[in-house]
């Protein structure tokens, strides 16, 4: 197979039927100049055998790690094997709107990193959203339903990062997600690394992916508070490592401000707020 435009990389761990749904969502697209790479993190549910049996398409390659390497090191295995001009990273349950890659192909360029709007069911089952990093270091979803074109943003999520090969090689030194950072901070570190290198991030608003995760991370429970505490500490370290001591200090306050923010404001934030934050 010659070099495709897109390498679509999924990392899996005991995904059940979800990864098959994701692959079918890619292969049902009208745009065909792509490859799909699945990296399995030592699943125990027969994922690799099931995929090799179900799919007979030379655009699909499946790699199996002999142990669970975690998110960053796991997905990097797939990125290393990617042949496309643009490396696209997604979760193993992500599906795509019709025409997703066709639309994406009209926006890509070698000098910017892209993401797209997402329908994240943890936030809303209908709104198309884009996340931005707040002054407190956490990502906040904004409703972009009905908007078109693309907007410059300050955050690229791990589920939906579209990285040109040129930036992957010359700016990121062949590491998209750095395993030294907390699993909830690898994408924040990526975003800050790109900003440090003067690489712009844009969100494509004309299409969207679907992330059906319904985890109740916003519910006021002890478990969620402990998760918040761990993530706050990790984000402080991430800002410090990227020479942002002021943001690191402000991020420390989010152990108190983030719950207030969550429960006092509507989510996702309105489209008008997105326009104001981004200058769209």
TrEMBL record:
Presence of the UniProt keyword Glycosyltransferase in the record: yes
Residue ranges of every copy of the Glycosyltransferase 2-like domain listed in the record = 7-114
Gene3D superfamilies under this entry? Spore Coat Polysaccharide Biosynthesis Protein SpsA, Chain A
Keyword annotations for this protein, in alphabetical order, are:
Glycosyltransferase, Transferase
Question: Which InterPro entries does the entry mention?
Answer: Glyco_trans_2-like (IPR001173), Nucleotide-diphossugar_trans (IPR029044)
Lineage: superkingdom:
Archaea
Q: Does the keyword Thylakoid apply?
A: no
GO MF terms held by the record = glycosyltransferase activity
Q: Which Pfam families does this entry report, sorted A to Z? A: Glycos_transf_2
Q: What family is it from?
A: Belongs to the glycosyltransferase 2 family.
**By what name is this protein known?**
Glycosyltransferase family 2 protein
Q: What is the lineage of its organism?
A: Archaea, Methanobacteriati, Methanobacteriota, Stenosarchaea group, Halobacteria
